[in-house]
Structure formats: C-alpha cells, structure tokens
Design goal:
Elements: H1 12-31, H2 34-50, H3 61-91, H4 101-118, H5 123-135, H6 139-146, H7 150-166
Helix pairs in contact: 1-2, 1-3, 2-3, 3-4, 5-6, 5-7, 6-7
Length: 169
Amino acid sequence: MNDAVLPTEHTLDNLYRDHRSWLESWLRRRLGNAWDAADLSQDTFLRVLGSAQPLTQLQEPRAYLLTVGKRLLINFHQRRSLEQAYLNALATLPDTCVPSPEQRWILLETLQALDELLDGLPSGVRRAFLWSQLEGLGYREIAERLRVSERTVKRYMAHAYEHCLLVDL
C-alpha cells in the first residue's frame, strides 16, 4: 500500500463542504449582509455546477470560487444600481402612471435580463442598441449622439443583434 498523500478529489459535495463557509464569510464582509452573502454563495456553487470546468482538474479551488463569486458580486451591485435607477425614475411619475408592485417586479426582471444579455458589449454598441430599441431612435440620431457615422451605427447594431442571438442566458 502506498503511503503517499493523495490530493482531495474535487467533487461538488467536497468543494461545497470544504469552502462554503469561507466563501460566505468573504462575501459577507463585502456585502455587510449575511442573507445576501448566503444567496450569492449558493449562486456561486450553482454556477460551478453548471460550468464546463471539470472539478477534478481544479488546482486552486478557492481561487476558482473567488473568481466566480466576484463576478456574481459585481452582477449583484449592478442589479442594485439598476433597481435604484428604476425606483428613482418611478418616483418622478405621477401617481396615476405608477405601475403596480407586480408590474414593477416584471419590469425589474426584464431590465436585469436585458442588462445580462448586453453584458460584454462595448459601450458604444450597447448605447446604440438601447437607444434604438428603448427610445426608438433612428441610425442618424444615434450617429449624432455617439459622434460616429451612420455606417458605424449599422455595424454596432449588427454586432448587438449577433451578440443577442449567440448569448446563452
């Protein structure tokens, strides 16, 4: 029998058991909130479960979990910022135009999905797409706002459409 110490096999069960409390503590320090930290910790492990990275090949499991956790933390802050901007916009509406709580939730979920869909696009492409789709601006108006040619706006829009078709949410 060989007395050599074998590295721990990284299964999701082992990874979770060995590193969940550490990851959750790290997230709690950044969020100042145990509930959100627990949610993001769970989301991290769900992402790991759905990833293409074979767990058996992980050399540094904490570094991997930290990378995934940081990305989710950034998304969390972006979502909060988006929600706050939406609530601020709602506060300017007359009472007769304010959507119901159910409609607000649906709108926030839609905004979040749109934000995730457009994540990774260059700023100009993203703005061109949003101005076109949300404000109904034509390519000429978008070109003027971005200070680029209409031809560039057409390329931006093609890039955005292609990105939307290829992104896997």
